[in-house]
Amino acid sequence: MRRSARRRRTVTAYREHGRTVVLIPAAFTAAEERRWVDQMVAKLQTREERRRRTLGSDDDLMARARQLSAAHLDGQAVPVSVRWVENQHRRWGSCTPADRTIRLSGRLRGMPEFVVDYVLVHELAHLLEPTHNTHFWSLVHAYPRAERALGFLEGVEFGSGAPLPAGAADDELEPGAVD
Questions:
Q1: For residues 12 and 27, what is the distance between their CA atoms, to the nearest angstrom?
Q2: Domain boundaries, the chain
Q3: Which of 29, 30, 83, 147 could form a disulfide with 58 if both were Cys (CB 3.0 to 4.6 A apart)?
Q4: pLDDT (tens digit per residue) in 99-144
């Protein structure tokens, strides 16, 4: 719990390095503090539970990758595994074409489905073209919501205060190094 002299009415809660942080106005009484901390912790837990339920397991990701490959890449991108990982803090996803594995950052959990789909299509395209060349981007942009998803991810990164890579607005780079 952190009190702020600048904060007047709003209460915010988030997770930081495995801890819950609740920001409250400095003027709150002890009773108000207890009530708001309890309420905000419960709200965070509900949100996290909802996120875990909506995106499912690694098997669900694999099934979704197969559907997206069939729909947008003529079924040519065939991964051996697709899984969630919690150790990617700078990338949204990664792909190792040599062993045909794809990993998606757990930070994507709870984001809109079209954003997760975009990252999956991006990584699937790496199975067909390892570099970010023109052919690669033509594969990625076969996904009709690619630009919208890129904009969403750029907004998430901007809102987090993380610096965007140079040229992130260009088609040559993507936010969060979605490799």
A1: 15
A2: 2-54, 56-160
A3: 83
A4: 999 999 999 988 889 999 999 999 999 999 999 999 999 999 999 9
Q: Which fold has domain 56-160?
A: Zincin-like (3.30.2010)
Under 8 Å between Cβ of 137 and 131: no
- The DSSP H or E segment spanning 113 is helix 113-128
pTM of the model: 0.64
Answer yes or no: are the C-beta atoms of 44 and 14 closer than 8 Å: yes
Residues 6+ apart with CB under 8 A from 96: none
**Spatial distance between the Cα atoms of 13 and 1, rounded to a whole number of angstroms:** 9
For the residues of 3-26, what is the DSSP string, one character each? EESS-SS--EEEEETTEEEEEEET
* Cα–Cα dist 111/131, whole Å: 26
Sheet holding 101-105: strands in order across?
81-85, 101-105, 93-96
In whole angstroms, give the CA distance from residue 104 to residue 175: 14
The amino acid present at 171, given as its one-letter code, is D
Give the CA dihedral 173, 171, 60, 46, nearest 10 degrees: 70
